[in-house]
Design goal:
40% helix; single chain; 147 residues; two-stranded antiparallel sheet; 2 domains; alpha+beta; 4 helices; two-stranded antiparallel ribbon
């Protein structure tokens, strides 16, 4: 009986190619949308973060009701104040995004990169494969810069 139904379906789809194209596109769109949604849900909600003790990580941000900003990055002074006064969080780290000018041989290039505090990498359990990590002394104003 199932075989007869499949034969009938194939005959009907062959008779009306425009309808067949609409069916195939609809099914393909549905499968693609479901795959995309599951990929996002899996990455964001189901899969644990790839850090040591991901259940202990907290993201802290500021909000501004006057400017209707629900979330924005904290200032450096606020971060330093929170870090100094915190009794709840063990280590604290910060990151930010910036643009940098790369100069040297040839034309200068503008690159997008990030800035991190020396405490962020150990907090996430990240160790460099080559070289060394940042030293706490490198974060202080007027400290020697390593190259």
């Amino acid at each position: 009986m199932l075989l007869n139904d499949l034969r009938y379906t194939a005959r009907m789809l062959r008779k009306s190619p425009l309808f067949t194209l609409a069916v195939v596109l609809t099914v393909a769109l549905g499968i693609g949308a479901n795959t995309a949604i599951f990929s996002v849900v899996n990455a964001v909600m189901l899969k644990p973060l790839p850090y040591e003790q991901p259940d202990r990580l907290v993201w802290i941000a500021e909000k501004n009701d006057k400017l209707n900003l629900p979330t924005f990055a904290a200032s450096v002074l606020n971060y330093l104040s929170w870090k100094e006064q915190s009794r709840t969080f063990e280590p604290m780290g910060a990151f930010g995004f910036a643009t940098f000018n790369l100069t040297g041989a040839g034309d200068p290039e503008q690159l997008t990169g990030g800035t991190v505090t020396p405490s962020l990498l150990p907090l996430l359990g990240i160790t460099p494969l080559l070289g060394r990590s940042f030293a706490v002394e490198e974060d202080r104003p007027g400290s020697r810069r390593w190259r």
